[in-house]
Design goal:
Helices cover 17% and strands 25% of the residues. Helix 4 links the parallel strand 5 and strand 6. The chain has a single domain, classed as Ribonuclease Z/Hydroxyacylglutathione hydrolase-like (Metallo-beta-lactamase, Chain A, 4-Layer Sandwich), CATH 3.60.15. The protein is globular. It contains nine helices and 14 strands. Strands 6-5-4-3-2-1-14 form a seven-stranded mixed beta sheet. The mean pLDDT is 97. It binds D-malate and manganese (II) ion. The site of manganese (II) ion (MN) has 6 residues, from loops.
Length: 311
């Protein structure tokens, strides 16, 4: 199974359009230690001919340009896409807005929780996904689902989705619904993706507010994990005067600190651990930062656009 990182940055991308934080400046100036990244998405394929996209970022069009295998090849029909399906892990703008790029009456399967599908159905702009072609599949948590190709044949990839701590998408927050803004379990899910034939599998968890013991147990002895790398410290956006929210308020665990992912996962056996969904303020974005060194010493990697892994 091939995994291609389409976008390694969090919502807004790196550099974010309106951000003049030193990190963003370095990337904007094309500093070699500050590699630009598009918004959060990965793609998986068994043969590099048929692909499934996990989350559809607003940068999707650019991501396809940078990953030509995801565009029609020379001998494909006049209208064709190698994208067989899209799987959403939440309704965040950085994970759903790219669906708009997939208009033009092209058949594919769209997998998401019922809650997220309802959100899409209630936003008329998503009607550009012609229901005659786009098959929306409400997924059941905690059970395996075989991904289907656009022509409904079996793909050979199965996915198990399960809820992780998080919150409802920012644009759906309802302050009248209490401290969790009306969030429910289905709002943030993790995916376990398996090659049915070989049994090879990996976990994709681009948003997670904290790591309970059951999640540590579930990830123990895992081959490959992509995990929420939004912030280095919980209050970094406040401290650096670029925002008013903590990571906790945004539904994202931080890398550092006692409750941070580096510490929490230190006794969990995972062969390869890769941070993804990285915010423009996170110092670990910089190849030469001391934070990057700390992270690497703890056995972690930082995803970058076009990164490819074969399992
Ligand atoms: C998040 O991951 O917290 C969201 O993508 C934030 C946003 O929608 O800007
Ligand atoms: Mn996001």
């Amino acid at each position: 199974m091939f995994i291609r990182v389409l976008g390694a940055a969090a919502g807004g991308g790196y550099p974010q359009w309106n951000c003049n934080h030193p990190n963003s400046r370095l990337a904007r100036n094309k500093n070699s230690n500050a590699i630009k990244r598009t918004q959060s998405s990965i793609a998986v394929s068994l043969d590099k001919k048929k692909w499934f996209i996990l989350n559809a970022s607003p940068d999707l069009r650019q991501q396809l340009w940078e990953n030509p295998e995801l565009m029609p090849a020379e001998n494909d029909p006049l209208r064709y896409s190698p994208i067989m399906g899209v799987f959403l892990t939440n309704a965040d703008v950085d994970h759903t807005a790219g669906l708009i790029n997939l208009r033009e009456s092209q058949a594919f399967n769209l997998y998401a929780t019922e809650r997220v599908i309802n959100v899409l159905n209630s936003n008329s702009i998503f009607n550009v996904l012609n229901p005659k072609f786009v098959n929306k599949v409400p997924i059941k948590l905690d059970s395996y689902l075989e991904l289907l190709n656009a022509d409904k044949t079996a793909s050979g990839i199965k996915v198990k989705a399960f809820a992780v701590p998080g919150k409802v998408a920012l644009w759906l927050e309802d302050a009248n619904k209490g401290p969790n803004f009306g969030s429910v379990d289905e709002d943030t899910i993790a995916l376990e993706i398996c090659n049915e034939e070989t049994g090879a599998s990996f976990f994709y968890i681009p948003a997670c507010a904290y790591v309970p013991d059951w999640l540590k147990d579930k990830l123990n002895n895992t081959n490959l994990l992509f995990f929420d790398g939004t912030l280095w410290t919980d209050d970094e956006m406040i401290k650096q005067k670029v925002g008013i929210k903590t990571g906790k308020r945004m539904g994202h665990i931080s890398m550092s600190g006692e409750e941070g992912s580096l510490n929490i996962f230190k006794d969990v056996k995972i062969n390869r651990k890769i941070f993804i969904h990285i915010n423009t303020t996170n110092p670990a974005l910089l190849n030469n930062s001391s934070e990057r060194k700390v992270l690497e010493n703890a056995g972690w990697e930082v995803a970058y656009d076009t990164m490819e892994i074969k399992i």
